[in-house]
Amino acid sequence: MNSRLLFQSAKQVSKEIIRGKAHFTFQPSNGLPAGLENVGTTKMNLMQSVNEAMKIAMETDDSAVLFGEDVAFGGVFRCSLDLQNKFGKDRVFNTPLCEQGIAGFGIGLAAAGATAIAEIQFGDYIFPAYDQLVNEAAKFRYRSGNQFNCGKLTVRTTWGAVGHGALYHSQSPEANFTHTPGLKIVVPRGPIQAKGLLLACIRDPNPCIFFEPKILYRLAAEDVPNGDYVLPIGKAETIKSGKDVTLVAWGTQVHVALEAAQLAKEKLNVDVEVIDLQTIQPWDEDHIVESVQKTGRLIVTHEAPISSGFGAEIASTIQKRCFLNLEAPIDRVCGFDTPFPHVHEPFYMPTVSRVFDSIKKTVNY
Amino acid sequence: MNRLIQISRRNFGLARKCLAVEGDAFRLDEYSGKYLGHRKVNFTEKLEIIDANKTAAIPIYRVTNAVGDVIDQSQDPKFDKDQALKMYKTMTKLNILDKILYDSQRQGRISFYMTSFGEEANHVGSASALEPQDLIYGQYREAGVLLWRGFSLSQFMNQCYGNSEDISKGRQMPIHFGSNELNFVTISSPLTTQLPQAVGSAYAFKRQPNNNRIAVVYFGDGAASEGDAHAAFNFAATLTCPIIFFCRNNGYAISTPTSEQYGGDGIAGKGPAYGLHTIRVDGNDLLAVYNATKEARKLALQNKPVLIEVMTYRLGHHSTSDDSTAYRSAEEVESWGDKDHPITRFKKYISENGWWNEEDEKTWQNEVKKDVLREFGAAEKRKLAHYHELFDDVYDVLPERLRRQRDELDKHIEEYKEHYPVDRILEKKL
């Protein structure tokens, strides 16, 4: 695929950020995950924490290999920096430029007992691998009656808007995969979660797709706990408590949500509860239910197009389970049903003001 | 920049000639070492576009002729009696199994079936040349390979019925066999997906110390057109994996003849272009398939991936959903059956060695028929597993959301029992 184009733009991402063009402000985590308060921390951006997670995965598991397009020299986003030097050419290596091959190869490695960490350079280019992931990886265990599985496979890929990526370097294709039972889908919101959740995916006995918000690679820096730790897959996290509205997001959009929540507090005196879903499949239904039972209102927001987006699944489930708690219709603030635009990206995005407006309308319903 | 200008100014006589020679040598060295996998390459001043239709076809390696005579004694693998009889018995057992299961589908007793008629030798010839630890990825028409490895008649039948004894838990249509114990990865319907997977497994084996294990992947002439085939050949060659790609070129992909499937020298013709060691083999000659696979395994263990294309003919329909008389003549099928049947060819080998006669044949045929029918009847009577098993193995453990869906189904079935085939399933496991 034509992903090499973006090698250049990957660098431009950081320039743009320096120019302050990002559509959100990264908000570091408040405090450290439970049990990690005393392990010490190191300031890292998301690229470094992903790199650190893979380093730990490979140190603790001799069978682990990392492969994909351009990973040998460190990767176009520098996530595999120095790993080939540390672990050798047989464990960190380039593959031919072929996403279906990368996915199929990874499934086979995992089926033979090796831990496979596959990199697909852009989420937008994951579709040649779609058949291997949807028809093969997701069904490997089921169709064999649990005689075989490829649970040691983790596919890492970049995800989300960057300000100038247009149709083919901006997409958020998580919902294309959540309609396939058998896969686990995870999106971190920052370096702390990226490290713990990526390690969890790599060690999880099911095939995982780990979407890395590429705009956060350099922009997001925070104090990341040292050493080896995992964060639980399948658990959402309430990152800001509130009593009036529940606002659910994942990945980059969590930061947009937090900003909108702050604005709502300042301008409307509304207490928004912000939840980072983290795992999109299998998702933490009960966590959202508990929150909505308290607030009586729900907004889901994601960058991907609204129709058939994962917000629809959440809205439908919550209206069924919380029907009598709801004080207002569930709202979704999402991308429009267009291909991802180029120069009009600022008008397409579920911006802070659109989320704010949704909060306003929801509380005033 | 200055230096470049200086060089460009030396545009006279000898210096220029020296530079040209040096420059050519440098470029040839670069092209050979970095672009062309150390293949020696030269410049040519002759404008010639290679005519793909005039390149010689890769020859078909064989040991016996169409009636089963060994042509060059040095190529006779010299099977001993037990080995040869096991081979013959596996081929004929597969043949009888196919006949009975094909008919049972026609009678509506199982839902679907695919026969291996005409391809028995390439299954058994290859399987017998491998080691039990070699991991096999099949396409779907490789039942003979499983039979050789010891998949029992009862396991075949239980899978075809998807009953509670099926080791794959009734999850797939008939013939999607698999056995972890026998190192045979469960078949999946999508074509060619198994190829890059097999390369991945091969890579995992390569990383094991003192590796004595390869991956072997079977596929057809049609499957070779999928992008996954290209991906797999390319990955195997660049990542130097211990693998055998085993293509059964049987002339048809459902109805599409090979003449409409590819434009080059078959599947083997692609091998060298990818950097794969390659051989084309007479697929109806068990001895040739055996020799080729044995040799290929040696190369694979040196991390030299090998492509084997066996030339054969699909004597049966594609599947029970297909009637091949719609696209090929009965005459064509008959000619192949009469003129080149793999079982007949190998029968000559064992008969001439004095290991088999018509009396043995009759006894054996009766014995197998009896066994197949007995196991068939037993499998048909077995109940299906409880429907709760439809929720298992999606993940290693049942997610909460899926457990809720299962609970909903329980409640629903409790109320609407009469609309569901509850009498065909076993009680819920405690």
Overall description:
Chain A: Its cofactor is thiamine diphosphate. Chain A: It is an enzyme of class 1 (oxidoreductase). The complex is a heterodimer of chains A (365) and B (430). Chain A has 365 residues and is of the alpha/beta class. Helix content of chain A is 37%, strand content 19%. Chain A is built from 14 helices and 14 strands. Chain A starts with a helix and ends with a helix. The model of chain A is unreliable at 1-20 (pLDDT under 50). Chain B folds into three domains: 2-35, no CATH class; 60-381, 3-Layer(aba) Sandwich (Rossmann fold), CATH 3.40.50; 387-424, no CATH class. Classes of the chains: A alpha/beta (365), B alpha/beta (430). The interface between A and B is large, with 48 and 49 residues.
CATH topology of the largest domain in chain A: Rossmann fold
Please estimate the helix content of chain B: 40-55%
| Biggest interface pair, counts | A-B, 48 and 49 residues
* Number of H/I helices of chain A: 14
Helix-and-strand structural type of chain B: alpha/beta
Low-pLDDT windows of residues of chain A: 1-20
User: Can you name the CATH architecture of the largest domain in chain B?
Assistant: 3-Layer(aba) Sandwich
Q: Give the radius of gyration of chain A.
A: 20 Å
CATH H-level superfamily of the largest domain in chain A: Thiamin diphosphate (ThDP)-binding fold, Pyr/PP domains
CATH architecture of the largest domain in chain A: 3-Layer(aba) Sandwich
Residues in β-strands, percent of chain A: 15-25%
Taking all Cα atoms into account, the compactness measure Rg of chain B is 27 Å
CATH class of the largest domain in chain A: Alpha Beta
Shape of chain B: globular
Strand ordering within the main sheet of chain A: 3-2-4-5-7-6-12
Distance between the termini of chain B: 82 Å
First-to-last CA distance of chain A? 47 Å
Tell me the CATH superfamily of the largest domain in chain B: Thiamin diphosphate (ThDP)-binding fold, Pyr/PP domains
CATH-defined fold name of the largest domain in chain B: Rossmann fold
Catalytic activity (chain A): N(6)-[(R)-lipoyl]-L-lysyl-[protein] + 3-methyl-2-oxobutanoate + H(+) = N(6)-[(R)-S(8)-2-methylpropanoyldihydrolipoyl]-L-lysyl-[protein] + CO2
Domain Transketolase-like pyrimidine-binding (chain A): 44-219
Cofactor (chain A): thiamine diphosphate
GO molecular function (chain A): branched-chain 2-oxo acid dehydrogenase activity
